[in-house]
Amino acid sequence: MTEQTAIDEREAAASDRLDPEDAGRALTAVESLLARHRARFVELVERDEQGQALKHEPAVDYLTELRWVLEDMHPADVAYVLEALPVDDRLEVWKLVREVGSSHDEGEILLEVSDSVRETLIGAMNRAELVEAVESLDADEVADLAPDLPREVVEEVAAALPLEEREQLRAAMSYPEDSVGARMDFEMVTIRDDVTLEVVLRYLRRFDALPDHTDQIFVVDRDERFMGALSLQLLVVTEPEREVKDVMQQDVLQLGPLDDVGDAAAAFQRYDLVSAPVVDAAGKLVGRLTVDEVVDVIREEGEEQVLAGAGLREEEDIFSNLWDSIRNRAPWLLLNLFTAGFAAWVASRFDATVEKIVVLAFLMSIVAGIGGNSGNQTMTLIIRSLATGQVTPTNVRRLVQKELLVTLMIGLGGGAIAGLFAWALSGSLGLGGVMWAAMLLNLLVGASVGMAVPIVRTRLGYDPALGSSVLLTFATDTMGFFIFLGLATLFLL
Amino acid sequence: MTEQTAIDEREAAASDRLDPEDAGRALTAVESLLARHRARFVELVERDEQGQALKHEPAVDYLTELRWVLEDMHPADVAYVLEALPVDDRLEVWKLVREVGSSHDEGEILLEVSDSVRETLIGAMNRAELVEAVESLDADEVADLAPDLPREVVEEVAAALPLEEREQLRAAMSYPEDSVGARMDFEMVTIRDDVTLEVVLRYLRRFDALPDHTDQIFVVDRDERFMGALSLQLLVVTEPEREVKDVMQQDVLQLGPLDDVGDAAAAFQRYDLVSAPVVDAAGKLVGRLTVDEVVDVIREEGEEQVLAGAGLREEEDIFSNLWDSIRNRAPWLLLNLFTAGFAAWVASRFDATVEKIVVLAFLMSIVAGIGGNSGNQTMTLIIRSLATGQVTPTNVRRLVQKELLVTLMIGLGGGAIAGLFAWALSGSLGLGGVMWAAMLLNLLVGASVGMAVPIVRTRLGYDPALGSSVLLTFATDTMGFFIFLGLATLFLL
User: How many domains does chain B have?
Assistant: First the structure.
């Protein structure tokens, strides 16, 4: 890369006009400046070792340039870059960020990064720095960070908060992780219903700015009970002489602090909302949920399902340390090892049969594998339907019938192909027939387990996705071997 | 269910206060009313057959009650209910919805439902009904529906549009599926920069309502070129005497109509946006993207990845017809059948070995299976990192090193456990050693393929997720058999 393109990049990264590629460009710029800074350092050390004088040179100071770049970046872009850097580079950049940025930006960055990256960043800060960064945040944001912060830092920050905010922090930290309460914020603008819009407008002009995502202001009575909402859109299109109570909307989505945040997110998506009031059991307005949190929730839910599908407990920092990665992955692999071992043991009960017809050994994994694949398709679709709440006691029987019928058709067709293959490989028509039957039966096993496990887990109040795939593979492997070798023992010996 | 609870449900579903459970309650209410209507109908027919008079009875007419429920429901909730009903119930409810609802609601519902459900609903409408429902929508919404509508309907609707909207429809339909252009709308409020906020407020009061998700109005020059944005929040907190050009923000995210909508969604999430202007190459404001579309995009992306992981081409209507389901699932199963067949053929080349040591037959699928599981974990993480753009030419080498090291550690540990199991099952220490080595090697195969396939596919410009898992299983199955049986042939015979 030439000097010129580096400067172009810096300028692009620093330009006023934001565009979707900003974060990616910033990453490239930071990486290349870091690399050049390193290369220069190595060069200087080498020259020093060769006895060449380290005189003052008019060299480009890449580190200074990097500071400029970081200074101009949006905190969310800094967070993005930090995520993508190997740990040592990340900590070096984080040090520069803290030299040039405000403590508020530091707090924002800590909020933006993933849990595992946050851990590395927090580990590099001392207590005073942490307190400074965290105390610049709102109560709900402090609550989000609290689980990852040293206890003393949270206490020190809490002690310094005004009474109302300390109360909010306490409340936010008390709600369960997946509840609306844990995700809401407290930055609501509230008004009374007996004033005119003119008065509301005058009131609002006393603010320097409204909280982010204020698309509506909330109407409450003397006891802070929620009465309705006035959207800014209505406020600006309506004649200022009218009173709030005549204009406000009452049919707005109200959330409870203990509502499941996934359900709330689905409601935001259904009704295309930007914000919603959070109202407690007594009707008191206690907070609001905004669409930026909802977007995060939806993204996280998608990620969780993808990760759970591969047996990963959580998102990994791509440069997490070895031990964290192993802890994240090993439990599921170990579980699979045990189920595969059990299936192998079941199959080994038929060793007399396999000894006589060796080709069975090579065909049996096809039966097991395709049963698992097909069951996984059924299970994935059922888990999705369960997640949206569209599987009901009324329609579940028809759903089961349909799935079994689809599997039967696929089993008849796919089993025939597998049977032909077995016939060709072994030269035995009987073995082809056994293959066909075993395939069909194991596909039905896969479909049944693929439906039963998530449905039963949901009924019992568990997450349908977690662990279901291990149970499925266990069933299709074990039953696949058992059915295939069992039929072969019955009909071919 | 008693009469009373049904009425409670109806009232809950119809209450002004929206909450996240509304859709679910509506579904239960509709299901139970439909079931009771059916039961009543059967009863009447039976009585008729038994010769009992069908005299006018003061019976509850469940169908009328169902109409009331549907009339009070939010279109998005109706869409939700339609998704969850078996096809015959769905069409019956859809008929009632069209009797009681406005054609605008019908259009909204068609927009909300999934592609496959939309197909069934459109199939039940005649041309005139479709035209009426569709022409009540905005140009960008018509464009969204167009691919699923009969050609003549789109033409008839387009012909009836005013020139400007017809032009917008043509533009929206011309952009590629995953572009910002295909997702943007045209409902922007624009102003000039040389007026005061007072003038802007007066101008806005001439609207009955602003378009949904108007959090900012756009400032353009005489040639419709984008100059900046004025947020409603700023508009209401700022003194009305000030001029737009002094107050407007210029550092807002600007999108191009050809930008990838996934990148745009990531930017919305990073910068917590509600709307963003879409500006063409000449700087002209051509549309806007809003957060409700972004929420849909993020949800769809998550769904696609989950479905692709199970080898499903698309989301299925849970009550889609058999043939659609088979078409959705069979190709991937067939592909897996071929790769499993190939792996079986490779293994069968070692039949002399297996004939001598039968227990190999039962252990070989463990080696293949765990290699596939572990490779899938690696692949899932890499695909996620690739999707966020955080894998760069600079860090990819460190990433590969780290993955191989993690796999090596897991392989040493997991391989040892598998080796002990093999030893126990066979009584041969040598076989335990072969198991250990084969497991370790096949885990490394899985990790290598799990990284290489998505990275290479991304470099070549393909989607990294699609098809990767078939290639991975192919590699870990074939190589697992080959390595294990090969080592056994070398060392145990």
Answer: 3
